[in-house]
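haha ok so turns out i had the wrong file open the whole time. this is the CORRECT one, sorry everyone. sequence first:
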Amino acid sequence: MLKSDMMELKRDAAKMVTRKDYSDPAIYEIINDDLLAGYTSATDNVAVDTMAWLCKALANSENPLHKETLRKIADNSGNPKLAKYAKKALKSMN
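then structure:
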């Protein structure tokens, strides 16, 4: 589901990762890569919501390396909602 091209499926997968404790680092690398590839082009509501859920899911990794991705999104996202959720996810990792 995370590798799907359909934003709705990707969002559902991010919600599942957020609600359960996954320890497989490969899951978080997929999420990290998806965020870096998609946060600047997320303009419609579904895409922005999906990216916000991916931020929240990435924070579950508790990997300090992923803080940089969340910081980048918080600082450079052109969408206020996405920036807000990236900041919130970043704060939850501290």
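The chain has five helices and no strands.
again sry for the mixup
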